[in-house]
Amino acid sequence: MMSSRFGPRAVGSDGSDFRHRQKVATHYRDSVLNKYRMKVTLSLHALLLFLIWAKLSVYALRWFDFTLHFVSSIQMPQPEFWEYWWIFSFIPSWLTVDAMQRNDSSAILKAYFLFLICGLFPIAIGAGLNLNELVTYTKHGRAEELFYDFPVVVIRYIFFAIALQVHVFAMYFCTKLGQAWQKATSGMSEANYPDSSLSNAKRQ
């Protein structure tokens, strides 16, 4: 039973840890909510990774001279170097999943920066490299490359827009999870040493 300021106390509690219990409950709620949001975000990221891996796999099969009919018949756009960089964004996703299993704030911080390096940076570079082609297509309606009669540059910018949001949300949820876990840990420390907390408060 949770202790309450005016209600019954939990067994083994004198009621002085009421605020700590409320803080822990809040941090736990925030952690559960943001874990769910992160899982949805990572699912979208996994879908994007699958699309890029599938594209690069087609070129890998061609490079190794696999002459399967369905591979040779696919009109796949030429891969760009940012795509090879971006596929390493599976690393922060894997690290995030591991951190969520252990509520590890240090691991989630590493995932945050890896999302920046392996996710946002290559997306930004790819968008910059394709900007001139997008402007040309917008002004003159001419595309340098087509994918089943659809301009590849438009497909790329749709991908950039979705991937950008996925990475930004992932980094945001990394921040929220790290904060929730750190506050929960500090709250537990205060509960374990209530006398020192009271003495510090009196000194202040």
Automatic annotation (TrEMBL):
Q: Does the keyword Transmembrane helix apply?
A: yes
Q: How does the record classify its membrane topology?
A: Multi-pass membrane protein
Q: Which UniProt keywords apply?
A: Endoplasmic reticulum, Membrane, Transmembrane, Transmembrane helix
One GO BP annotation of this record: vesicle-mediated transport
Q: Which residues cross the membrane?
A: 44-64, 84-100, 112-131, 151-173
A Gene Ontology term for the protein's cellular component = endoplasmic reticulum membrane
**Localization annotation:** Endoplasmic reticulum membrane
Q: Which Pfam families match?
A: Jagunal
The entry's family comment says: Belongs to the jagunal family.
Any idea what this protein is called?
Protein jagunal-like protein
Tell me the organism.
Trichinella nelsoni
Q: What is the lineage of its organism?
A: Eukaryota, Metazoa, Ecdysozoa, Nematoda, Enoplea
